[in-house]
Design a protein that fits this description.
The protein has 346 residues and is an alpha/beta fold. Helix content is 41%, strand content 18%. It has 15 helices and twelve strands.
């Protein structure tokens, strides 16, 4: 009942007040259960939703909600897999869930199924209920990010690429971590992320090792090799063995997203596969070299101010020399790229 009374009060204030700033009272519920890369392809949508109204509540994976909160994209977040939301997925809503949803003036569901149970449940509870299809129709080669924006804001004019602003405490901690590892800011900092959610999306690990060796020897770089929970023990053991005994190289294991974002924001260049971390690197403004094989980079490529995608039918067809050349270009551009946007596909 308390939620319903709050909703009535805000509705009356919105109707009676001629002041456009009353939109600050609007509360928007966003349901997005995608993984890191998929949510970041919706970053421009989330930013524009936040700018068009007051409070944004993000229901999705808890680590992503925490990152979006920390970076100021949303004010509130909750775990979309929590028991409170069970009614959204089974076609029935208990009183507590209805009471919770009544506090919202608008809902936006990011989904592959416009007629799915979540979309239907929210449309039956929240008057202004919108659905954003996340996957462009078959044969339509347009960025998934632009496709989503076109559904929510048809008149939107492309502007600056959306960017995650990492809060200063996380940036300070990242700098302190790098200092402990031995990076003093006097040489290029490169992060490589050789993993991905699918093996077919991974450039061979030996080629990453060869690339890192080249960057250490020829460019004097300091290299961080990042791995995550998707990598198995054998993969991690190979990375550890490669790093052991070498100078200016560190292995970063699984870490929280705000800390990873802060480290990426310090990098001169990032190199990785078609993965969520590649999308995160682009989103925080790090010059990003993304390697794509079976996935169409025009649709699913990272969105950022400096993004170079190298693609081939199979990732084994991408030579180390080609990637190293693009990384050198990124080094040369790093001092000036932030004033504009660079995105290309090779």
């Amino acid at each position: 009942m308390q939620h319903f009374e709050a909703w009535i009060l805000r509705s009356v204030q919105y109707v009676l007040s001629p002041d456009p700033s009353v939109n600050q009272l609007m509360r928007t519920f966003v349901h997005h259960d995608g993984a890191l890369g998929d949510v970041l392809l919706s970053l421009d949508c989330l930013r524009r939703l936040r700018e068009s109204a007051g409070t944004l509540h993000f229901a999705g994976r808890p680590d992503l909600g925490g990152m979006l909160r920390a970076c100021g994209i949303v004010e509130e977040s909750s775990d979309s897999g929590a028991q409170r939301y069970a009614g959204l997925y089974c076609g029935g809503q208990e009183g507590y869930l209805k009471g919770f949803l009544w506090q919202f003036d608008r809902s936006v569901v990011f989904t592959v199924d416009a007629g799915g149970p979540v979309s239907r449940a929210l449309a039956g509870t929240i008057a202004d209920a919108k659905v954003v299809l996340t996957v462009p129709p078959s044969g339509v080669r347009v960025s998934a990010s632009r496709y989503r924006i076109g559904q929510l804001f048809p008149e939107a004019v492309p502007g600056r690429e959306p960017e995650l602003t990492v809060p200063s405490p996380h940036r300070d901690l990242a700098l302190a971590m790098l200092a402990r590892w031995g990076w003093k800011g006097d040489r290029p900092l490169v992060m490589v992320h050789p993993g991905s959610g699918g093996r077919s999306k991974c450039w061979p690990l030996e080629r990453y090792f060869s690339l890192v060796g080249t960057l250490l020897a020829e460019e004097g770089a300091f290299v961080v090799i990042a791995t995550g929970p998707a990598e198995d023990n054998r993969f991690l053991d190979r990375v550890e063995a490669f790093c052991k005994g070498r100078e200016r190289i560190m292995h970063l294991g699984d870490t929280d997203l705000p800390s990873l974002a802060a480290l990426l924001g310090r990098c001169s260049v990032y190199v990785g596969n078609d993965s969520g971390v590649s999308h995160l690197a682009a989103a925080v403004g790090s010059p990003t070299v993304a390697l794509f094989g079976p996935t169409d980079p025009l649709v699913w490529g990272p969105v950022g101010r400096w993004v170079q995608v190298i693609s081939a039918e199979t990732l084994e067809d991408i030579p180390v020399e080609q990637v190293a050349k693009v990384v050198r270009t990124a080094f040369a551009d790093a001092a000036t790229y932030r004033g504009g946007t660079k995105r290309s596909y090779a």
